[in-house]
Amino acid sequence: MRLNFSIKTKIILMNMGILIPIIIFIYVTITNNLYSNVIKSNIDLLTKESYNTQVYISNYIEKDKGVDIETNFVHKAPLINTYLSKKLNYRIQIYDKNGDIMTDSVANRVTLFDKDITNAIKGNKAYVVKKIDGNIYILFSSPIYLKDATLGCVRYIYTLDIEEKFINNMFIIMGILAFMSILISWLLSKLLSEKIVGPIKKLKTVSQKVTKGEYDNRIKIRSGDEIEDLAETFNVMSESIKDYVESLKEERQKQKKFLDNVTHEFKTPLTAIIGYSEIIPKLKKQSDIDESLVFVKEEGIRLLKLVEELLDLSKLGKSEFKIDRKKNNLKEIIEEVLIIINPRLKKYEIEIIKDLCDIEVLIDKDKIKQVILNVLDNAIKYSECTNINIKLQIENEKVILNIIDDGIGIAKENISRLFEPTYRVNNLNSINNNGNGLGLCICKEIMKKQNGDIKIKSNLQEGTSIEIIFEGN
Ligand SMILES: Nc1ncnc2c1ncn2[C@@H]1O[C@H](COP(=O)(O)OP(=O)(O)OP(=O)(O)O)[C@@H](O)[C@H]1O
Ligand SMILES: [Mg+2]
Questions:
Q1: Nearest to 137 by CA among 118, 171, 161, 109
Q2: Ligand minimally distant from the alpha carbon of residue 419
Q3: How far apart are CA 24 and CA 181, in angstroms?
Q4: What CATH topology corresponds to 7-171?
Q5: Is the N end or the C end of the chain the one with fewer CB atoms within 10 Å?
């Protein structure tokens, strides 16, 4: 059977398990020694007394010359008894050599015959400790000789009344002391175990919090022992878990962003291919058809390049497309984007008013196409506009592309949040309400990476103006 005790209980049980037997052992040894010492000292006293008695009786009997010793002893025994009992203040008995009582200092009492008598009349001092009527007595018998003959014996009946009381009191005091020391050590064990268990409990609470993902919790333990070291190690561990989890979160964030960028980037060539496939059937001239097919092929190749790049990045474990900046004519890029979205402009009867000039800028053509396409796509999808103004100009050594629609506009409070990922203005009337809210955020990132920027100005019911700023040459 497995007993599950807490550390606290184990410490208390261990201390009590050691202490209680020790205390019981000390208690029993001391009380036993005390008892036997009391008996021994009284026996010594009685032995000494018995020598005096022997001398006294010898002198007393030998005094009467010519009288038979034994007859004289029988005759004088009552007097001897009276003398001894008065002198010593004990109960005294005198027995003859056959073990029969001759005289007793206390009349009409039982004789209490015992083996001390048998031994004494054989010539040996002997004693018996006996409990009589609830009191303890030492029955000490000593032989009486005269001229090598044993006349009988004298017996001292010594009561241990006072000693018994003293021993009993000692038992009680020692019992109280033993109980007190067990109680004190139990309290001390409890305090000690609480001192040990307290920090462990603290450690447990914090580690439970860590398992729930609260990695910021730290433990402060100043016990100056191994538990303090453990708490320090635990804190270091929590810190590394926190760092690790944060790096994982960062990595996940990065991967999500990458996935968002990739899907958005795929949109440009796909929109282009769909756009041309809508135009081609409506074209009459073979040269226009051939030109459009070249564009379809180019966008198809671009799509393939993107997939290959994606595979390469995945092999290298990287999660960022590179920006490939080259000198490009911005006007040509805008025209290309306009061809792509032309079918949709026609479908929604949106007129494009262009004010373009040939400007060469250092940019990643495909990425800039993606930006312009998203801005125009937004205007078509959300603004309900009839005109889109596209103006390309140089201002303070910067190349600025303005794309202005005369649509519904965007509320002031929403404008600042448009560059946040996945933020969308809830516009139920919009043509296509299934965007992801990523476009403008990605556009901002693309422009920033090329030292440019993208800004929005908008007034409700007046329209939206998107300013795309390029780094000048
Ligand atoms: N010209 C505009 N007129 C009115 N609202 C606009 C205009 N341009 C953008 N918006 C609002 O800004 C929001 C964010 O546009 P954004 O291009 O970032 O995302 P999206 O077009 O919804 O999704 P995605 O581009 O990822 O497909 C749009 O959902 C739309 O509500
Ligand atoms: Mg968009």
A1: 161
A2: 1
A3: 11
A4: Beta-Lactamase (3.30.450)
A5: N
Return all residues near 183 (Cβ < 8 A) that are at least 6 apart.
Answer: none
Could you tell me the two tokens for 406?
């005369």
Q: Is 139 in the pocket of ligand 1 (CB under 6 A)?
A: no
Class of domain 250-470: alpha beta
- Nearest ligand 1 atom to the CA of 419 is 18
Largest Cα separation within the chain, whole Å, is: 182
Residue type, 458: S
**Does ligand 1 have an atom closer than 6 angstroms to the CB of 435?**
yes
Which residues in the chain are classed under CATH 3.30.450.20? 7-171
Whether the CB-CB separation of 178 and 27 falls below 8 Å is answered with yes
pLDDT digits 0-9 by tens, 199-254:
888 888 988 988 888 888 888 888 888 888 988 999 999 899 999 999 999 988 88
pLDDT in tens, 339-393: 888 888 988 999 999 999 999 999 999 899 999 999 999 999 999 999 999 999 9
Residues of the chain with CATH 3.30.565.10: 250-470
State in Å, rounded, how far the first CA of the chain is from the last one: 86
> Which of 418-446 are b and which e, b meaning 16 or more Cβ less than 10 Å from the residue's Cβ?
bbeeeebeeeeebeeeebeebbbbbbbbb
Task: Give kind and range of the element (H or E) at residue 398.
Answer: strand 398-405
Which residue bears the tokens 């209490």?
Answer: 112
Nearest ligand to the CA atom of 350: 1
Task: Provide the β-strand partners of residue 135.
Answer: 132
According to DSSP H, which parts of 280-319 are helical?
Answer: 286-316
Number of residues that make up the chain: 473
